[in-house]
Amino acid sequence: MTGMNSSTGRAIADRPHLAQSIGDILTTPIGSRVMRRDYGSEVPDLIDQPLNPATRLRTMSAAVSALVRWEPRIRIASVRFWIDADGKPALDIEADRVDGPRREAAGTLSVPLRS
């Protein structure tokens, strides 16, 4: 699938397009997209919650639920929540591409959850 880079306006395809789409799904709060109020995930609502095992689990669960619903090009194998050196939350998503003739084995995308 070909799309447009949200930063540059240039055309993007394949893995960069998939990474951008996943990032958009996970960082869009449910109810914030006009004409598509059910689009997005609950992840943004969890970002400022106390950082404990329950919040980590809820964040990973919210990510999987949203991606299963909104990103048909992948089949999720695993999700890992982590904090980078600057204290910013991120998810590593390991998934198989299941779309089109270029099906790919599991690959991992790292998605920052806050800019």
From TrEMBL:
Record-annotated IraD/Gp25-like domain positions: 15-89
Pfam families in UniProt: GPW_gp25
Name of the featured protein: Baseplate assembly protein
Species: Ralstonia solanacearum
